[in-house]
Amino acid sequence: MKNLLLIIVLTSSSVLFGQEVPPKEWQIKTALMAVPQDYKEGAKIYGYDSDGNFTTLREGTNDYIALASDPKKTNFSTAAYHKGLDEFMARGRALKAQGKEFQEIFDIREAEVKSGKLKIPDKTTLCVFTGEVNKETKEIENGYVRYVFYVPFATGETTGLPTTPTPPGHAWLMNPGTHRAHIMISPPKN
User: Fold this and answer.
1) Among candidates 72, 74, 78, 75, which has minimal Cα distance to 26?
2) Residue range 134-180, pLDDT digits in tens
3) Residue 70 near residue 93, CB atoms below 8 Å
4) What's the CA gap between 86 and 57, in Å, rounded?
5) Tens digits of residue pLDDT in 75-116
6) For residues 124 and 81, is the Cβ–Cβ distance under 8 A?
7) What is the reported pTM?
8) Distances from the Cα of 26 to the Cαs of 23, 48, 90, 137, in angstroms?
9) To 10 degrees, what angle do helices 102-115 and 86-97 make?
10) In angstroms, what CA-CA distances link 186 with 16, 24, 71, 98, 128?
11) Element (H or E) spanning 2, and its range?
């Protein structure tokens, strides 16, 4: 009975704590898939240590930061952004680590940006790369990049952009009038 209980506990903990953390080299290689070509060589890379803790995998020498895919999540997704967004992104990660949900994080950062406590650049870029990990080769297949251009507090009226999703390849403004207003561009999928 004790052995059965131990097996159940070990099995449950592997489910609770997600997948195994990929090697550092693989995290760096795949995180760079979100970085524009001009910035790949010197981009700073955040990822996960062998215990699953968020950490710096590589220091950077240019204006881009890349995030490795979170091993606790089922779907593969990396992101890269201009270093001007790092304080804003770090604040979101810190609030999430405190157990805050999306809307609460949104509201807290909105208040902090409006008060001047939290800085967000008036124009900056984020690229998100998604795909599927081939279980055998560990290569990323069916890669897809979408682009986000932050323009805090922009509206449809100030940009001339629609504020509802548009056909693939067309720009639209998400979260208009808020600190998180951003232009979305999602190219057509092949």
Assistant:
1) 78
2) 999 999 999 999 999 999 999 999 999 999 998 888 999 999 999 99
3) no
4) 15
5) 999 999 999 999 999 999 999 999 999 999 999 999 999 999
6) yes
7) 0.83
8) 5, 11, 23, 12
9) 140
10) 33, 29, 24, 31, 10
11) helix 2-16
Identify the DSSP state of 61.
S
User: Mapping DSSP to helix (H, G, I), strand (E, B) and coil, where does residue 19 land?
Assistant: coil
Among left, alpha and beta (phi > 0; psi -120 to 50; other), residue 179 is alpha
Residue labelled with tokens 């967000």: 120
Residue 172 and residue 4: Cα distance in Å, rounded?
55
Nearest CA among 169, 173, 174 for reference residue 188? 169
Contact 82, 125 (CB under 8 A): yes
List of residues 6+ apart from 108 with CB closer than 8 A = 95, 100
Helices (H), 46-182: 86-97, 102-115, 156-159
Query: Collapsing DSSP states into helix, strand and coil, what is residue 74?
Result: coil
- Span 43-84, pLDDT tens digits: 999 999 999 999 999 999 999 999 999 999 999 999 999 999
Q: Are 80 and 35 in contact (CB under 8 A)?
A: yes
Give the end-to-end CA distance of the chain in Å, rounded to a whole number. Answer: 53
| Count of beta carbons in the 10 Å neighbourhood of residue 108 | 16
